[in-house]
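Re: beginner question about structure tokens

> Can someone show what the tokenized structure looks like for a real chain? I only ever see the sequence side.

Sure, here's an example I had lying around. Input first:
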Amino acid sequence: MHDYKSLEEQYGLSLYPKREAVLVRGAGALLYDDQDREYIDCAAGIGVANVGHCHPVVVEALQRQVAELMVVPNTLYNDKRSLLLEKLVQVAPQGIKRAYLCNSGAEAVEAALKFARVSTGRTEFVTAMRGFHGRTMGAVSATFTKKYRDPFAPLVPGFSYVPLNKIDKLDAAVTEKTAAVMLELVQGEGGVNLATKEYVAAVRNICDERGALLIIDEIQTGFGRTGKNFACEHFALQPDMVTVAKSIAAGVPMGATLLSDKIKVEPGMHGTTFGGNPIACAAALATLDVLVNEELAERAVESGDYFEQQLLSVELTQIRSIRRRGLMIGIELKGKVQPILEAMMDAGVIALPAGATVLRLLPPLVIEKSQLDVVVKQLHLLLK
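And the corresponding structure tokens:
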């Protein structure tokens, strides 16, 4: 039998702190390791498996597509790509007219930054402190946290950062040189921080007044996670661009930049080899069907409400606050989160951090109430 841990340590690049489990299969909200131990997954591949692991509708679509066609360049038309572009625009926030398909969230952000510059003729950007937009050079330049940026300086110039929900700071930062403001309406990596209604309205007004575009990063919040298809729908907000990825194709690598008519890009200005390939498009089409047909956005609201009610049914002295929208949950602790994560893993529950003191839960939207009960029981034991 292979020693999988040793193989990864010997031949892989050690960029992530690893947990001990070797995960080999999954179904719904459950994962199993190579010892056949069961885990309730409250990470979902960091917000990827919204429709659950190995959903049969997605699996069938992938199997069929792999047998038909696996790659076609963007210089030729493709049936699955065409259908997905149509469906993305149909489910997108109001005002979105087109989509650019790529392979990841970081690529979606890179495209949005380039499209903003070329469409406005401006070069500067404003983003939020504690926001996270990716690891490529443009995306990491847009990310405030120094540990992600500083080792790679000098980065792309022209980025400034303001606190979320501080209208006066944003007002002072956006100028006639600003190409775009880019924000997460729920900051995932930064601690599950929620934008306020007043702030979101002010952002749209400030951008309109000064001719700046508004980019909303929905890479973690998109496709039902917050209880709507997109988080901006909670605010009746019309972004100029929306970046999506993670759960778009149920685990097949894919991203997209959704575009309003304000975005003007000429042929040859940007491109991708693998973006919009038939396999990813088939997976995304099936995933979007599952999200709609199984009403998973509505289920996220119901399950999120149920989880919070059950969690707060007893007094938990280690909790400072709970921040939540749908099934995007942040539990701020009075102490460090890492020991809690390790204890939960030992008890068969996989969860995430969002900073040093925030426990982040991003379970598949198909998670059962009985599985949420198990998670709540563990948290009651650990956080009293």
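Each token stands for a local structural state, so reading them left to right follows the chain. The longest helix spans residues 105-120.
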